[in-house]
Structures are given as C-alpha cells and as structure tokens.
Structure prediction request, 171 residues.
Amino acid sequence: MRKVLVLNTTYEPVNVCSVRRALVLLLKDKAEAIEHADTCFHAERQTFRLPHVIRLRHFVSVPRAASKRISRRAVFARDRHRCQYCGSDRHLTVDHVIPRSKGGADSWDNVVTSCAPCNLKKGDRLPHLADMRLASRPRPPEPASFVFMHVDEIHDSWRPYLGSLAAAPVA
Ligand SMILES: [Zn+2]
Prediction:
C-alpha cells in the first residue's frame, strides 16, 4: 500500500506513515494535506483526496541524527547504498575507517559502507596505507535519511520536501 510523507510544521520530513494513519490525522485535524492525488474517496461522511504529503499542525521535536544508534541499515542509507571506496552497490558491509584494533571508534565519522572485496583488501589498515580513498568524509547523516530507511518507494510528489535526499536512490 502507498505511503504518505509526514512533514513537521517546518516542512521537514518527520516520518512516513500509512494512508490510513494519515487519514486519521487529517480527520482529527492534526495535519493538513499538502500534496494529494486526484482520486477521491469517502470516509467518515467526508470526501478526501488520497494524500501523498501531509503537514502536522503542531511541531514535533525529532532527535538529532548524531545521537541515533549506528546500524548497518543507517550507515548504508547515509551512504546511499554505495561502497565508499569503489562505488559498488553489492555485498555491502560496514567498515571502520580507523580499525577498531587501532583504537577507531564506533562513531558516525568512523564508519562507512564498504563492499566485501574492498573491506577485505583494506583489512586491518588505514585507507591510505591500503592505497584506498574514501568518496567522502563520513559524518552524521541528515535526519531525513532515517525517514526513508524503511521506505520502498519515493513518490514524485515527495521530492520537493526531501532536500538533497531527493536524488538519493532507494534501496
Ligand atoms: Zn568497494
């Protein structure tokens, strides 16, 4: 079933919900529809157009991304499912740039997506000692990247609200 993008009062993405959940928010006047389909349907004696994007009427505070737990899924989403050494999108693993054995931390600026062959080649070394270069400096992900971690499809009507993530491929 199609999902609905939920925006904060500030128009920043907060999460993605089901159409049913979005309709409940609209019915309770907790949100307004910003983008919708032309399709109409009836619910609770009212006529609705199928929402694509809704905006909450009250601000909700979203935890800062930097404080979020690091997971494989989150690291892959931040790196757009590409090995940060060679660009491959297959056999992805998480690599510690400074190996843990060398005191490297479990922090957003020390973990990157790496394909298994690159991870194997790098081994227990720093990238430059293995003659490897990172595509970009790892940093905490944008808050919105968590919004799309569990979404299979990004609807075109969402793109104006996604900022730099709009171009991100969806895994
Ligand atoms: Zn690679």
Summary: The chain has two domains: 3-63+143-167, 69-130. The helical segments are 19-27, 72-78, 116-122, 143-147.
